[in-house]
Amino acid sequence: MFSLEQLVSFVAVAEELHYGRAAERLSMTQPPLSRRIQLLERELGAELFDRTHRTVRLTPAGRVFLADARKILRSSHEATLYVRRAKKGEVGVVTLGFTATAAYSYLERVIAVANAEVPGVDLVLREMVTAAQVEELLAGGIDLGMIRPPVTGADIATLPLWREPLLAALSSAHPLARRKKNPDIHDFDGEPFIMYSPSEGRYFHDLVVAVFRAARVAPEYTQYPCQVHTVLALVKAELGVALVPAAAAALRFEGVVFRPVGGIEGRPVELDLMWRRGNDNPALGALLTAVGKRAPGVGADRRGPTAP
Q1: Cα–Cα distance between 68 and 105 in angstroms, integer?
Q2: Which of 147, 179, 193, 292 is deepest in the core (most CB within 10 A)?
Q3: Rounded CA separation 98/108 (Å)
Q4: Distance CA 114, CA 290 (A)
Q5: Three-state SS for 64?
Q6: Mind listing the pLDDT tens digit of every residue in the chain (308 residues)?
């Protein structure tokens, strides 16, 4: 099989049509260059040049082979550059898990940052709940997750990504929606309320329970769905009111209005980035650096440096 070195020599002679100039171009002497061409011709079983004392011309076979030789050298060069870029994390693939509510809020920002900062990195997106993301992360099924904290484990690093308030989701016909004053958390005391499933929607279930417990409020729970869009559908059906992350307002449910709620401290809904320590995917490190630099809302890493 011919070598890349032989192809480089052949292309140089074919372009110069002079062994002396080709040897000078390749920073070598003429005898070893001639030897390379002879070995290449022997390997191919065809003469590539017509040689006289004064002229060098490509044979028909040489003209055909020149086009292929240039393609092979170009592909070799591109492959070398690609490997170098992959080592730097400039190209590659990152598999990103995300929760359904993350798609309402921050997913598009991460995608936008990736497209702007590391356009050679392809994102493979997989929607799954936080617990499933942790399992997939540790098994190597995903590189990065957008999860609801807390997540623990010596092999897991997290980065606070986004914080947002809870909003009241009310049927447009509900008295709290029709009045000018925004509701207070105590307005939900004894009110029919759409609560999240304690198993499938555990993060929001525990968060809302903690908010009500802190305010000493006891709503009347009527339904226990697990997804925010289902909660809004039940609110629209006037089966109760609900508390939802602010990003849910982007869903624009007809017949549902969203109101800020007094008496809830801070921005309690949290979204974190998660990755496995020791992940050797260079594209992951490049993406994390880009997100940490460009994405608004990113906080300080609570479990270690940004790099994997």
Answers
A1: 50
A2: 147
A3: 11
A4: 7
A5: helix
A6: 889 999 999 999 999 999 999 999 999 999 999 999 999 999 999 999 998 877 899 999 999 999 999 999 888 887 777 777 777 777 789 999 999 888 887 898 899 999 998 898 999 999 998 989 999 999 999 999 999 998 888 899 998 888 999 999 999 999 999 999 999 999 999 999 999 999 989 999 999 999 999 999 999 999 999 999 999 999 999 999 999 999 999 888 899 999 999 999 888 999 999 999 989 898 999 899 888 876 555 543 333 334 45
Q: Which residues of 245-259 are buried (b: 16+ CB within 10 A; e: fewer)?
A: bbbbbeeebeebbbb
**3-class SS shares of the chain: helix, strand, coil, % to 5:** 45, 20, 30
Kind of pairing, strands 91-98 and 120-127?
parallel
Pair 186, 168: CB distance under 8 Å: no
DSSP states along 122-181: EEEEEE--HHHHHHHHHHTS-SEEEEPSP---TTEEEEEEEEE-EEEEEETTSHHHHSSS
Among residues 192, 205, 207, 181, which one has the least CA distance to residue 260? 181
Specify the pTM.
0.69
Q: Which amino acid is at 283?
A: A
| Location of structure tokens 């059906």 | 237
8 Å CB contact between 113 and 308: no
Distance CA 112, CA 237 (A): 36
Residue in 159, 268, 277 with CA at minimum distance from that of residue 213: 268
Cα distances from 151 to residues 95, 139, 210, 277, 292, in angstroms, run 19, 16, 18, 14, 20
Look at the block and give the residue holding tokens 């393609």: 71
